[in-house]
Every structure is written in C-alpha cells, then in structure tokens.
Amino acid sequence: MRVKKIVLAAALTMVAAVTLAGCGKKSSSVTTTGSTSGNYQGVIEDGRYKTSKARGVNTAQNSNVNNLKAFEAGLTNVSKQVFSTKSYIFQEGQYLSSGTLENWLGRKTSSNPTGLNPAKGKSSDPNPVYIQQIEEQDYMQQSGDSLKLKGIVIGIGVNSEYTYQKTTGGPNYTKDISDAEVQKQGKLAAQKILKRLRERKSLKNVPIVIALFKQAPDDSLVGGTFFAYSKNDGDTISSWKSLNYKAVVLPKASDATSNEASDQSDNSNFTNFKTQIQSFFPNLSGVTAQAEYQNNSLSGMNITVTTQFYSQTEIQSFTEYILQAAKKYLPSGIPIEIKIESSNGIQAVVFRNSGSSSYQVHVFGAY
Amino acid sequence: MRVKKIVLAAALTMVAAVTLAGCGKKSSSVTTTGSTSGNYQGVIEDGRYKTSKARGVNTAQNSNVNNLKAFEAGLTNVSKQVFSTKSYIFQEGQYLSSGTLENWLGRKTSSNPTGLNPAKGKSSDPNPVYIQQIEEQDYMQQSGDSLKLKGIVIGIGVNSEYTYQKTTGGPNYTKDISDAEVQKQGKLAAQKILKRLRERKSLKNVPIVIALFKQAPDDSLVGGTFFAYSKNDGDTISSWKSLNYKAVVLPKASDATSNEASDQSDNSNFTNFKTQIQSFFPNLSGVTAQAEYQNNSLSGMNITVTTQFYSQTEIQSFTEYILQAAKKYLPSGIPIEIKIESSNGIQAVVFRNSGSSSYQVHVFGAY
Predict the structure, then answer these.
(1) Could you give the domains of chain B?
(2) Closest residue of A to B70, CA-based?
(3) A93, A82 in Cβ contact below 8 A?
(4) Which residue, B206, B225, B203, is CA-closest to B214?
(5) Interface test mutation site (partner B, options A49, A311, A350, max chain B beta carbons within 10 A)
(6) B69-96 pLDDT tens trace
(7) ipTM of this predicted complex?
(8) A313 at the B interface (CB within 8 A)?
(9) How many Å from the N-terminal Cα to the C-terminal Cα in chain B?
(10) Where are the alpha helices (DSSP H) in A250-311?
C-alpha cells in the first residue's frame, strides 16, 4: 500500500507523477485521481473511486438540480479556503452513512429521535422542513503508507420556502422562510451535528468545518448559495464567518431593480453580448446566463446559447463569432462558460476556467 | 463597406484585429467572424451571418446525423488542402439555391430534367438513388472594398446502399452499392455539375473543386468519408486525387478482423483506456469511440463516456481521472474529444484540438 507524496509544486509535474500512480494499479492500494491546477486529487482504493457512504442521498433531496450542483461545487469552494488543494486530498464522506443522513434529514419523532427537522404539528399549518440536504467531505494527508483524516467539512442546506398540502391531494401552499430563520435553523442544526460528530472516537480531534447554504426555491433558474461557515476544534461553535454570495439570472427582467451600480453595468454588458449574438442568424437565438456574485462583484457566469443550426459550418462560424463577442463584452478575470446548443444537444463550448486568462474553444465533431 | 486585410500571421494578433472589425458594426458592411488557429473566418453581411442559399437542404437529406456532420466537416478539410485558411475567407454557398439542389438531388424525369439520379424503373427492382447530398462552399479574398469569389468547392455524397419498398407500406429491401459503382456515379455527377456551373457567367473563371463522399448506411454509428477530389480550371474533369479516409467504431466487435497491425494496436490502446475508465465507479460506464483513419494512420477520435453520477464531486474526480488515462493510453499528436455524459446530458469535456499538444478540461457547472 503506497500513497504518492503530496507536496506538489507545479500542477504539470504533479499530473505527470500522478499518471503513474493513478492509473494501472489494480492491487489493494490507495492512489489518487490526479488533478488539474486548483482542484483536489480524489481517493482511489483498489482501483475504484472511493464513493460516499451516503451516495445518492442528496440527489434524491433536490428537485432543483441547480441546488444540488451549486451546493456541492460551493461546498468544495468553502473547503478550499481551509484545506489547500496542494496539501490535502479530497475523499468523499466516509463517516455519515445514507441511513444516518436520512434520519437526520427527517422530522424528529419518537421513532426518529435524531431528526433535525421539527415535528409536523397540525396539517392546516405545519412546521416547515428546514434542513433539506447535508453533505460530508473528508480531507486527507499522507501518513506513512496510508491516508489519514485531517479535516471534515459538512455542508447544511436550509430551505428558504416550504411547500405543503393541507389535505392529501389538495392544493399546494407555500410558506416563505425568512433569512433570519434560515440562519437560526442552520446554526441550530450545525451545533447538533458538531456534537454528534465529536461523540465518534475517530472524529474527536480533527478540525470540523460546517458551512450553511440557503436553498433556492424549487422553480429557481439558479441554485442557492453558502452564507456562513465555521471551523471548529472543540464541540461548541463559537463563531461564524459570513460568506457573501448571490446567484442571479441574466438578462434581468425589465422590472427588476437593484441598488448596486455594478449589477446594472454587468447586466448591460451581458445584454450587449446577447444582442450581438442574437442578430447573427436570421433565426433568433436564446441567450441566458447564471451569474454569481461574491462580495458584490461578479465572480462567474454560465451562459447558454440555443439556436437552430443548419450545418456544421454554421456551428463553426457561430462559435468563432461568440468567442470574439465574449472577448469584447464579457468581463475578464473570472470563470466563464458558454454552452452552444441546438435541439440535438450541445454543439460547441467556449470557456475560460477559474485561474486561466484565456478562452478555450471546442466544436463537437463526428466521424 | 470595408473588409479587413486578410494577410494574417499569428492567430492571436488576428483574433484581436477581427474583434474590432467583426463585432459591433451594424451598418451595411461586410465583416468576418474572426477565427481560431487553423479555421476559416466566415462572412458577416449587414451584421448577420451570410447563410447558404440552400440552407437546410442537406439537413433534410440525411437521416443519419453522422453523415451530415462528417460530410460538412470533411468538405472543409478538403477545402483547406486547396484554399489556405490564412489567405481565404469562407462563405456559405451562394450560387446553388435550395430549388436548384432539390431538383439535382431528384430523379431525372420529364418534369425534372436536371435530376442527377436515374429514373426509378420497375418498383420490384428500382434503380438506386445514388446522389444523396450536395454542398457548395465559396472561398473569398479581399478585392478593394469588397470580397471577391476566388474558388468554389462542391461536395457530393454518394450512397453506399439503397433501401426501398416493392409495394407501398411493404417490407424494406436494401441493395448494396459497390465501391466501384459509388466512384462511377460520383464522377458522372461531378462532371455534370462542373459543366452546369461553368455555364454561369460568374463562375466561368474560378477554380472549382469537386470532392466525392461515400455515405455511410443510415444505421451506422460513424458517418461516411471523402474518397477523391479534383481541382478544375476548365469544364472537363481530367484527373482525380485519391483521399484515403476510414471511420470506425471502437472498441471493435470481437469477430471483427483487420489486416492492419496499426488498427489492432489502436484498438487495444482504446480497450485499455476503456477498462481503466469502466472500473472507476461501482456502476459501469459506457465507453465508445468514433475513430478516423487517414492513410491508414489514426487521425482523430471522438470518445463518449456515459455513466450515472451521484454528485458534482464525482464528476470532478472522474474527469481528472479520465484526463490521466487519456494521457497514458491515447495517442499523441491527433485531435481527441472525450464527452462525459449522464442521463442529464453532458457533464464535462476533455479534448485536444487539432494542432494543439495539450488537453483542455472543462466541468460544466451551475450557480
């Protein structure tokens, strides 16, 4: 059982080293996936990816796939603030099983004493389900011939609205949950979870990070965002660090108002990009974006362009044109993804990854 | 009306120049899309892409989308051998209209004297439809303030099989069309088309390139390939240059045999890649490829990996792992595309474009 050394300077040398370790071994051993710059390596055991002990629980918990993806990608971003990608290896959660998490995500009843959500109360005015999803991530370092747990990160997704029926099969009612209540319920659950984890012998002494995520409504075109995290060495949470993320859809509806001057200029830049793109073909293209803000500055965009193509040469030309428009109208210094789609699915992609200064372009082909 | 200068050295300087010309102008003018290294710029007129006069004809002519994409991308590759991407601008065909092409693609009858396909003959043993699709590409250069036509490329897709019913609603019968017949019918049609084009005043003196493509069967998992082209200054085709392309699906069926040692080693490299990938998750991944051969050497691969993901972290880790496996097992020096898909569509892409020596990776995200 050998684990390759973790001290990695340049991403490229690293990748070469990992190739040898990560591929081809099939005996009982721990290796890693390798990683590109700024991303974690993942744990492979006996030639297979070490999947989560609660694999699939959160997939079932989210009817809005944006919430699922934003939660998991966002949690990894929180982790990167505490556990450097150069010094730590990522392992899917191994301490909380599906059964444990399903109990925790349920309502507290006599048969489910560990439920983090309140009992239902009366059907005409039920208590909301607050805690919607929980995810565990493990961060490892090499210790002799094996990997040793050096930190745990727990994400907690808290609902911002609750939908219920007063009678079975009756109409849907929705209760808004205030930001103050989201914060309160998230922090209560975090404290309970921290205590429960510290009761386990193997988790007595590792740093435990807990991060709180506000779920977007089920019909939202963007997912929720993380708003606070806490790093703990003991069993009581003493302080929280605020996170200031926001996800919005662009272009904004004409009646949407914002006090942020930066928001307005981002929206107008995007609208210029959209106008430029839409006039390209006689048939109109759909152009929308998810935009993320961190500390009130635009921190990333995912753009989807949908149109009808009549030939591969049209796809090639349109993609070149979109690249030029992106360079002209979209902000520099942040990750940007542009998916170019037809009714047959994705046809091309233009992107600039996090940490990169140049766009990459690929037109999907066929032989 | 201004067209920017065409002499372009480095792709990067070019792209910067084109940005200014290609974007933002809306008055009556001809500009170009800009281009990435090794690709043509396309013509934009009055702010819109100049679409083909026969837009959509070939979309309707191909029930196998691989034939459509392989035909159009392959035709552009033939064009690149004659008209350099640095000196010529690509324009979608402007001389053959939908009506003209639809007549040419029909059978020759008294009401359709220009049909390139033979009359049907008796229903019990009909003559095949040989000519399935035709595409025109125009190659332009700057001349004063406008673009001038400097060459035309015509692609002709010839069927390798013909499916028919003896009675309406009856069972399907299929006739194979031999390679010799494909060649003969393609060359006959090419000569007729060349003569017809030369009869037009505007096409009297431009070089006309005609390229012949053998269509793959409708149920093929790869498209057809170009097998010959001819560059002509007059109205009679005197000689053909052979093109040696082949498209195959990997992994090969176990009963498939090949005399080419290189094919076998390519297949075994791909099988190693596939095995490495498939064992990564407890649930099996589907891994298939389209491989293209030029002059009996592997010249490109499009790989599709399909699996079930349970989290964004699984997608990220799997993508990193695939990158390492690609570097280890897949050949260098040729374009490679790896689509990583789930039932929800594409999740990530790993690719190395033509002319590039390094892989690019993108995991599709959500905010």
Answers:
(1) 3-243 (3.10.570.10), 248-363 (3.10.570.10)
(2) A367
(3) no
(4) B225
(5) A311
(6) 999 999 999 999 999 999 999 999 999 9
(7) 0.89
(8) yes
(9) 43
(10) 261-278
